[in-house]
Amino acid sequence: MPLPSGTITFLFTDIQGSTRLWEQHPDAMRTALARHDELLRQAIEDNDGVLFKTVGDAFCAAFATAPQALAAALAAQCALHAEAWPDALALRVRMALHTGAAQLRDNDYFGQPLNRVARLLSAGHGGQTLLSTVASDLCADNLPVGVTLLNLGTRTLRDLGRRENVFQLTHLALPADFPPLKTLDSLPNNLPQQLTSFIGRENEIEACRSLLTKTRLLTFTGSGGGGKTRLALQVGAEVLEEYADGVWLVELAALTEAGLLASTIAQGLGIREQAGQTIQQTLLDGLKSKSLLLLLDNCEHLISACAQLVSALLRSCPHVKVLATSREGLGIGGEQSYRVPSLSSPDLKQKATPESLAPYEAVQLFIDRACFHKPDFAVTDANAPALAQLCHRLDGIPLAMELAAARVRSLSVEDIHTRLDHRFRLLTGGDRAALPRQRTLQALIDWSYDLLTEQEKTLLARLSVFAGGWTLEAAERVCSGQNPTAPVIEVWEVLDLLTSLVDKSLVTPQERDASVRYDMLETIREYAAEKRRASGEEAAKEWHRDYFLALSEEAAPLLKGAEQSQWLARLEAEHENLLAALECSLSQETPGLEGLRFCGALQQFWWTRGHLSEGRAWCERALGEVGSQDGMQERAKALNGAGALAMLQGDYASARGYHEESLTIQREIGNRQGIAISLGNLGIVALYQGDYASARGFYEESLTIYREIGDRQGTAESLEAFADLAAHQENPERAACLWGAAEALREEIGSPLPPNDREEYDRDVAAACQALGEKVFSTAWSEGR
After folding, report:
1. Pairing relation of β-strands 335-339 and 217-221?
2. Among positive and negative, which fits the CA dihedral 36, 38, 39, 41?
């Protein structure tokens, strides 16, 4: 029977646990597998399907209609379930159905539908049959008797692309209860969902999976734009089940300080700093018992620091593996490097037709991205030769293919090829393999940039000041500033210009929690930054700094109230932008007060989110670089921040010194509220050092000032400090009474403890109860609350 063409429904199957069964029952498996093959072939043929490929025990069949494929799956599952298998050898087969347009060549199919059905199959369990949304819709009006399609909800499959609403075939003759689907939603990870599909790379994925079984450090190397990051994410998704504690991505592109590498990785893994311990030791201790895969993306600018930390991590954490991406290897023992190749491109010696080009990954990527920009795009006999030439000249570099595909909205493939040939004169002669791919990519970006309007060029340059992405609001505020040497961009124009840059694949939108953030590839960002510097647009860095300073100062008073969680999440999302803005504040020849203001505003964020080393380093840098006689109030706040962070690190001597200096300044300028805050901080340091008498003295003076100036919030915090002191002095009744009074005052002024602080206080109380062993403490605490 000929293979169907056009829109096809694919049925993929495989046997659950077949490797184990072969190892345990090799003789019985030969007989069982022959019977399995017979039953599946019969079900497929009886429903007018064609078996076009088998790989081991996996079957790949094609059907002209979705109802035929569903009927075949039902017949096969019923026959397999009813079969009298030998003891301990019941074969459980998982199946998946998906419908889409695929290309046929040499009795095989190519295209995204095959990737989709394969990902769907990998999510299922033995005996389970899954359908994609489109296959389910096509079968809904023509279901076999007794069949229903159970909606399992929307899931993220392992291609990290669009989410899929998955359905399960159910029938009275078949089992209906299965474990949760093996999708990204159900396994521990922080892999980001991608808005574009993953193309090809099947051989690379299998090779990398095999390498990960033989090494604990695998480094993807290659030039910028070559697809290292995307391949690493896909490999991580594929091996997710193999790591009990998940697969975790840590992006390093925006990190400029090598000394903050350990804290950045710890943050990505949710490991918080511990008092009295270096962040590296805390990280190693936190991972010692974990079984996980750590993806470190973009290591090249921190190569030495990454090499040292990864080496320590692999020595101390026996069940942790690392997959790194870098333009060069880390150069440490046990490292396995893997150079990520370009996508497969057509052989120019062969005649280029739509059918002959179909198997090549560069072509598949171009078609997929071109259809995103122009849904009716198709490869024809007329444009196939130009497309083959284009893929060959671009060396199959993924980013280059994406940027070229974005031009189909206004140019034909032939026009794109002609323009590319004109711009890439360096590629027309000599040994093309000897030319750096980065230079090829640079030329392509030049060409793409030349096609932008002047306003788009200006916006792209200004957007390069962002690190780690941005929101539309931030782009409107930062990029609409006026510069006499550049085209005017009004606030209301930013959205349309930004959308245009998205359409041209220079900016990428990312959906997060029902909102959209924008970002650009690091290579594009570096290119745009060069254009910004060359065009005199450096004022954008100051606009960026001012926007995030205002955001930080708006957030500061709200980090101690009911909106704490919301604002902490917002600042965390902008973490890399905050660091870039801080760097801008302090990198001037004569730094102004902005750096100190940032430190004063962000200290609670750094404290609460555990960015202790990072926050302290910024505070100390700002205090050292800004004149000691400038901005006394700002300096005092930054000193408080440095002191609080040093105290949490267990460095009480430094903490006391910072708070004493802050107190001196506050007394000099007569800021009574600032005096009370510094006294309270000194009291906390004294308490942690066991100097209860000094702590009481500081607290009493602080509380007196708060009451005199009518600061009821400060009064409540002082009462809580006294309660903490009483607990340390083993006076549970007094502690409970003070805690109760503080909470009552908070309720009276409408300032409840934020959730994070509430949980911390409850933990402190529980610990005090356990340490003191006194029931009266717990009783009094409950009554006080």
Report:
1. parallel
2. positive
**pLDDT (0 to 100) of residue 584:** 92
Kindly report the CA angle at 730 between 729 and 736, in degrees rounded to 5?
105
Give every CB contact of residue 119 below 8 A, 6+ residues apart in sequence: 157, 158, 159
Please provide the size of the chain in residues.
785
Mean pLDDT computed over every residue of the chain: 86
| Packing angle of the helix pair 612-625, 575-586 (nearest 10 deg) | 20
The pTM assigned to this predicted structure is: 0.70
Q: How far apart are CA 620 and CA 251, in angstroms?
A: 25
Name residue, tokens 């290659």.
222
Residue with more model confidence, 326 or 393: 326
Q: Please name which of 83, 96, 82 lies closest in space to residue 16, comparing C-alpha atoms.
A: 96
Q: What secondary structure does DSSP assign to 552-571, as a single string?
A: HHHHGGGGGSTTHHHHHHHH
What number of other Cβ atoms are within 10 A of residue 168's Cβ? 18
Q: Which tokens hold the place of 576?
A: 């890399």
Strands 217-221 and 320-326: parallel
Alpha carbon distances (Å) from 734 to 698, 762, 774: 18, 16, 13
Partners of 294 in beta bridges = 248, 322
Opening angle at CA 562, ends 560 and 566, nearest 5: 90
Torsion 482-485-490-496 (CA) sign: negative
500-514 pLDDT, tens digit each: 888 777 888 887 766
Instruction: Write the burial class of residue 7 (CB in 10 Å: 0-12 exposed, 13-18 middle, 19+ buried).
Output: middle
- What single-letter DSSP state applies at residue 2? P
State the virtual CA torsion across 693, 695, 696, 699 in degrees, nearest 10. 160
Partners of 470 in the β-ladder:
518
Write the CA distances from 456 to 56, 443, 462, 534, 668, integer angstroms. 53, 19, 10, 16, 51
Which helix (H) or strand (E) segment is 105 a member of? strand 93-105
Q: Which of 35-49, 77-91, 207-221 has the lowest mean pLDDT?
A: 77-91
Contact yes or no for 201/361 (Cβ under 8 A): yes
Q: Decide if 379 contacts 363 (C-beta within 8 A).
A: yes
Q: Name the 3-class secondary structure at 620.
A: helix
DSSP code for 55: E
d(CA 75, CA 340): 43
Taking the C-alpha atoms of residue 761 and residue 750, their distance in angstroms, rounded to an integer, is 18
Which DSSP state fits 751? Answer: -
Q: Which two tokens stand for residue 785?
A: 């609350």
Torsion angle (degrees, nearest 10) of CA 377, 378, 380, 383? 40
Reduced to 3 states (helix: H, G, I; strand: E, B; else coil), residue 329 is coil
H helices of 270-412, in order, are 279-287, 303-316, 354-357, 361-373, 384-393, 398-405
- Does 776 score more than 50 pLDDT? no
- Check: CB of residue 235 under 8 Å from CB of residue 378: no
pLDDT, tens digit (0-9, with 9 covering 90-100), for 37-70: 999 999 999 999 999 999 888 999 999 999 999 9
CB atoms closer than 10 angstroms to residue 508: 18
Alpha-helix residue ranges (DSSP H) falling in 239-288: 261-269, 279-287
